[in-house]
Design goal:
This protein is α/β, with parallel strands linked by helices. The chain has 10 helices and 15 strands. Helix 4 runs parallel beside helix 5, helix 4 runs parallel beside helix 10 and helix 6 runs parallel beside helix 8. The longest helix has 26 residues. Bound molecules: alpha-D-glucopyranose. The site of alpha-D-glucopyranose has 5 residues, from loops.
């Protein structure tokens, strides 16, 4: 009887999780049907990447001069959120012309990627993902496939010694031991091979039927293949190829439950096998993230602006903006450091990585607020980092205000305490359950050098709080016997 009840409970629990997961995934760009990579170098790279926990995402392009959303204002879809301003063009064609002319004024003179790498490193970030090309097609690297690029003589910044900003960013972060990720948009709204000017664009998708015009589509495939070849050949070691624009996908892979996927009416097979094998030949072990196209080339999933409520068993990363926007907008509202720390704790306790986006402005630097947040984070990380890196999710994951991680070996249990509200308020004593098979040898409150008093009551641990001035979140670290 008890067994039956337990089985029922498990079934109900997993049904709940399945339903929850499917609505979450549809809303936040998480595909289902994960396939574990078999290439041992990829498996190893993924495991190392899961140790890093915290990365920097940067969306940067000519659009930052207008302070509007990255690329999307070119797309006739959902005009309401794409921030088209009448002063930038009365007609669509005028708008596109002006948008693309932003190339001719792009001159981010304050560009200094070492400053970014230093600040990100101090804040505890361990990898970087940079938009080498967004949907608008403007290459932030020195491509030979197009003149719509930062190193073109039409772009004023091409005279700068670090004009190939992708190269300079990768080198600066690599020098600080970061893993390097190239964000690259498969769709390209500039090339004639994707949005052919013979037709008007209708939405984010290719604007002609690739089956009717196979030669054009083949040229687009070649163009994309060549750009990814350049990125994985000429830019030193690249650890992650982060491919956005999941609507470029074989028609057969469309998930009809997802609104933007339902809008795809034509075959957009880009031959991911050919691209993936080329990238792996150039960069053995590279993690490929063909976002939302689950299968062989989506080595981790990427919830966006959201944290799954429950642990996921597969490698995952939430990309979340520090401000409100992925791209630079003047006077963006930056999240408080406390929220950033809480987000990190929730993500790692559910087995994920946190990719925090900061957008450089048209001058080539971050807002001062972003640096302020990074500095605040560095203080917390210096004290609590040992509970963050190289950890894994562990039951009970969360209990009330307490969140758990464990060391990979399982001999250290980390218990984070969060509190609601603007300021962190720590209790007089921390009280939380611990797994029955974990027998405690030593208890530390991270950041406190004295001995802490603790006791056990059944499966609960009670730890006296010696200090009143903890910041953002407290961490109790337990070592096993
Ligand atoms: C959203 C945005 C896209 C951005 C991406 C990053 O999908 O629309 O522009 O690059 O998030 O995850």
């Amino acid at each position: 009887m008890r067994i039956v009840l337990t089985i029922k409970k498990i079934l109900l629990g997993s049904m709940f999780l399945a339903v929850y997961f499917s609505s979450f995934s549809q809303a936040h760009n998480v595909s289902t049907g994960y396939r574990k990579p078999t290439d041992s170098l990829v498996v190893e790279n993924l495991d190392q990447w899961q140790d890093l926990k915290f990365g920097l995402f940067m969306h940067w392009g000519t659009y930052s001069q207008w302070g509007v959303v990255e690329s999307w204002s070119l797309c006739p879809e959902d005009e309401s959120w794409t921030q088209r301003k009448p002063k930038h063009g009365a007609t669509y064609n005028e708008y596109v012309k002006n948008y693309e002319s932003l190339q001719e004024t792009f001159n981010p003179k304050e560009f200094n990627p070492r400053k970014w790498a230093d600040a990100a490193k101090a804040a505890g970030m361990k990898y970087v993902v940079f938009t080498t090309k967004h949907h608008d097609g403007f290459a932030m690297f020195d491509t030979k496939q197009s003149d719509y690029k930062i190193t073109s003589s039409r772009t004023p910044f091409s005279k700068h010694p670090q004009a190939d900003v992708t190269k300079a960013i990768f080198e600066s972060f690599r020098a600080e031991d970061f893993k390097i990720g190239a964000y690259f948009s498969k769709p390209d709204w500039h090339t004639e091979y994707y949005w052919w000017s013979y037709f008007p664009p209708r939405d984010r998708n290719v604007n002609y039927n690739p089956e009717k015009y196979p030669e054009r589509w083949n040229k687009y495939k070649e163009f994309t293949f060549n750009q990814i070849d350049e990125l994985t050949s000429n830019y030193g070691k690249v650890d992650i190829l982060w491919l956005d624009g999941g609507w470029v996908r074989p028609f057969s892979t469309i998930d009809q439950n997802v609104e933007w996927q339902r809008a795809i009416t034509v075959e957009q097979d880009i031959d991911m096998d050919r691209i993936g094998h080329m990238a792996r030949k150039n960069q053995p072990g590279i993690i490929v993230v063909d976002r939302t196209v689950s299968g062989k080339w989506e080595n981790y999933v990427t919830p966006e602006q959201a944290i799954p409520e429950h642990p996921l068993e597969i490698p995952w990363e939430s990309c979340i903006t520090m401000g409100d926007s992925f791209s630079y907008v003047p006077n963006d509202l930056y999240k408080p450091t406390k929220v950033i720390v809480e987000t990190l704790v929730k993500i790692i306790s559910r087995g994920g990585n946190y990719l925090l986006n900061i957008a450089p402005g048209p001058n080539g630097d971050f807002d001062q607020e972003a640096y302020d947040r990074l500095r605040d984070l560095s203080e917390w990380m210096a004290l609590n980092g040992s509970a963050v890196y190289s950890t894994r999710a562990t039951a009970p994951y969360r209990n009330g205000d307490y969140y758990y991680t464990k060391s990979k070996e399982g001999d250290v249990l980390n218990v984070f305490h969060l509190s609601e509200g603007d300021e962190y308020i720590s209790p007089a004593s921390f009280e939380f359950p611990i797994p029955v098979d974990f027998s405690v040898e030593r208890v530390r409150l991270l950041g406190y050098t004295g001995k802490v008093k603790w006791s056990k009551n059944g499966d609960r641990l009670i730890v006296q709080n010696p200090e009143g001035n903890l910041n953002y979140a407290a961490t109790i670290q337990l070592e096993a016997k």
